[in-house]
Design goal:
By secondary structure, the protein is mainly alpha-helical. The protein contains 7 helices and no strands. Among the domains are: 74 residues, lambda repressor-like DNA-binding domains (434 Repressor (Amino-terminal Domain)); 44 residues. The mean pLDDT is 81.
């Protein structure tokens, strides 16, 4: 059975395409395309890149990429350095774990749920406060908690006294006959 690289090379040559054509179309360097065809995986940093390039290359050549990826995984399993994806260097901290967890969440589900729970929490909080205020008003002990009040006029307040003009008062005359 031919290797994955040999199958890709045969398909490319049968379609009359050069390495530069494939590289330019897929936005992959031509030397990486040649390394894939030769099975030289040392030019790639991680197996995930190799799988991605092979999958893209298969789509470009209109090949069944599922069968080739299975065969590629078997080929990669035979090499010690590419048998698994590299882990994060050093000890993972809290921030790394939290970032990884948050990146794996399906935000189209969780974001509306978080917003709904937040709104419901605020509504419950306001309802509880209003209910506590209503109960305090009904008990009537709120008046005992008010501070003592005392009127203290302001020091610089001017005392304004309004003087009213004298109003002429007509005294009825006693000489006129009264109308009874």
């Amino acid at each position: 059975m031919q290797s994955v690289g040999q199958q890709l090379k045969n398909a490319r040559e049968s379609q009359g395409k050069s390495l530069e054509d494939v590289g330019g179309e897929l936005k992959i360097r031509a030397d990486h395309v040649a390394a894939l065809e030769e099975g030289d995986f040392s030019k790639f940093d991680a197996p995930i890149f190799i799988r991605g390039f092979v999958r893209t290359y298969c789509r470009f050549l209109k090949l069944d990429h599922n069968a080739l990826i299975v065969q590629l995984n078997q080929e990669l399993g035979g090499t010690e350095s590419l048998a698994s994806d590299p882990a994060l260097p050093g000890k993972k901290g809290f921030v790394d774990g939290l970032t990884l967890f948050l990146s794996r969440l399906n935000w189209s589900i969780w974001l509306p749920l978080i917003v709904f729970i937040s709104i419901a929490g605020v509504v419950l909080f306001v309802v509880n406060i209003k209910q506590a205020q209503s109960e305090e008003l009904q008990r009537g002990d709120w008046a005992d908690k008010l501070p003592e009040t005392e009127y203290k006029p302001m020091r610089n307040m001017m005392n304004l006294e309004l003087s009213l003009p004298p109003v002429p008062v007509k005294v009825p005359s006693t000489n006129s006959p009264s109308a009874n």
